[in-house]
Design a protein that fits this description.
Elements lengths: L1 E5 L2 E5 L7 E6 L13 H24 L4 E5 L10 H16 L3 E5 L11 H4 L6 E4 L5 E6 L5 E7 L24 E6 L1 E2 L13 E2 L1 H5 L5 E5 L5 E4 L4 E3 L15 E7 L6 E6 L3 E8 L8 H16 L6 E11 L3 H4 L2 H15 L3 E10 L13 H14 L1 H7 L11 H12 L2 H14 L1
Parallel strand pairs: 3-4, 4-5, 5-6, 8-9, 9-12, 10-11, 12-14, 17-18, 18-19
Antiparallel strand pairs: 1-2, 3-15, 7-8, 13-14, 15-16
């Protein structure tokens, strides 16, 4: 395979190869996650969900007759791998082996290589290729007749704090079929990469350089194409592990055909799904029944065409609401969570009321000389005056980029509805 550079961009010239190659790309399975801070019953359910998601992925690989399953690190959390999960893992990998499907597994920071770590001690099946070295390993994928079908080049993490740019070590593509890179890495330009530790850091230029047909990456839990020129993808994790990991979770079914870009399709495998339901416009919601109906409507919209069978919901109530004072009581809030669990028929519900306030009319306090009037005046000046807005804004602001105009637009969006919230909170403090 050849690579041609034009300035900072690389234009890949993809040669013909004999036939289509089908792959299933998985990453960040994290079997036996502890799920600390959850109830014992929910922890058990979530650990079972991880196994179910992996079993569904194996079913998909067999049904789709893929040629290989690629595991891009963090298959499990090494120090928490139970006897039951290890036996389950060997059984599932054995199913792939029996179906003639290769598995290539490159270790990550949660399941690093070395004799002292669990992955190195497991007796893997014959078609399982375990890679736990920083030096890239070349693994040919062959057909039933022994003819080469594709080449996987993989490197793994040796310890739990890999700071080497492993991607820069990968050799140029060289083979009769497509070449696939397999790596658990922190690509610096990826979306939401800041939520993950900087292990095996690299750039998209490192991924473009060897001229591979596809990069199967792991580490960042947000599904995305990192770079089109390098055909580099993160599948996201197999099953969401916290309320921050919302949406459908699963793997990527990849088709590599002659003279065409990779055909990459998402396949959902997670049986349990975290979702956030932000509920505003509650100014007329004054009964539990009305609140349940509002939440149910939002959940129906979210659950449309979803593969998940169990739901974990975070319901965020915000803005003026006649029930604000009532729901400020932790016991009342806990009862609402129980009602929502039963009425929405979901696994778990957490209700957040931090931004819920009693109905108030800010206009009644404008122009006054007391604190509430001064706060409202400051908010008004911040909306109209860039200098005032910049003066009250923090130096570092999550959710905004470096462009001043975009930053100010984002800040002003945060000010929407703050008049009512500020007045309600200040009135509460005054009454106390």
């Amino acid at each position: 395979m050849e690579s041609r550079a034009n300035g900072d961009d690389a234009c890949l010239i993809r040669p013909r190869f004999p036939s289509m190659v089908r792959l299933l790309h998985l990453a960040d399975v994290h079997l036996d996650t502890a799920f600390e801070g959850r109830s014992a019953a929910l922890r058990e359910h979530l650990r079972d969900a991880l196994r179910t998601a992996f079993e569904r992925a194996v079913d998909c690989a067999i049904d789709e007759a893929v040629h290989a399953v690629l595991l891009a690190g963090d298959l499990f959390d090494d120090d928490r791998l139970s006897v039951a999960t290890e036996a389950f893992l060997i059984d599932q990998v054995g199913r792939l082996d029996d179906a003639g499907i290769d598995v290539v597994y490159a270790t990550g920071n949660h399941d690093p290589g070395g004799s002292g770590f669990r992955a190195a001690q497991i007796d893997w099946p014959d078609r399982f290729h375990y890679v736990d070295t920083r030096t890239p390993t070349t693994i040919p994928l062959t057909g039933p007749d022994g003819e080469p079908r594709a080449t996987v080049v993989a490197a793994g993490h040796v310890d739990a704090h890999e700071d080497t740019n492993l991607a820069a070590r990968f050799p140029a593509a060289d083979g009769p079929g497509p070449t696939i890179g397999l790596l658990h890495a922190h690509v610096t330009s990826a979306r939401r990469v800041e939520a993950h530790d900087r292990y095996a850091p690299c750039t998209v230029e490192d991924l473009r350089a060897p001229g591979y047909d596809y990069w199967a990456l792991g580490h960042v839990h947000t599904r995305q194409q990192v770079d089109e020129a390098a055909s580099a993808w993160y599948p996201g994790n197999l099953q969401g592990r916290s309320p921050r990991e919302t949406g459908a979770r699963g793997g990527l079914l990849v088709m590599l055909a002659p003279d065409r870009p990779p055909d990459v399709a998402f396949r959902p495998f997670a049986p349990t799904r975290w979702e956030h339901l932000p509920l505003g416009d509650l100014s007329t919601v004054d009964t539990v029944q009305a609140l349940v109906q509002t939440a149910a409507a939002a959940h129906r919209e979210t659950a449309r065409d979803a593969a998940a069978t169990d739901w974990l919901l975070r319901v965020s109530l915000r803005g003026p609401c006649p029930m604000a004072d009532r729901l400020a009581d932790p016991d009342q809030r806990a009862e609402l969570e129980q009602v929502l669990r039963e009425r929405l028929d979901v696994r778990d519900v957490t209700v957040r009321t931090r931004h819920l306030v009693p109905p108030v009319d800010p206009d009644a306090f404008r122009g006054e000389t007391h604190l509430i009037g001064e706060v409202l005046a400051l908010l008004e000046r911040a909306r109209a005056d860039d200098e005032v807005l910049d003066a009250v804004a923090p130096d570092v602001l999550a959710g905004s980029d470096g462009d001043p105009a975009a930053r100010r637009a984002y800040l002003r969006s945060l000010l929407e509805g703050l008049d009512r919230e500020a007045v309600a909170r200040l009135l509460d403090e005054r009454e106390e």
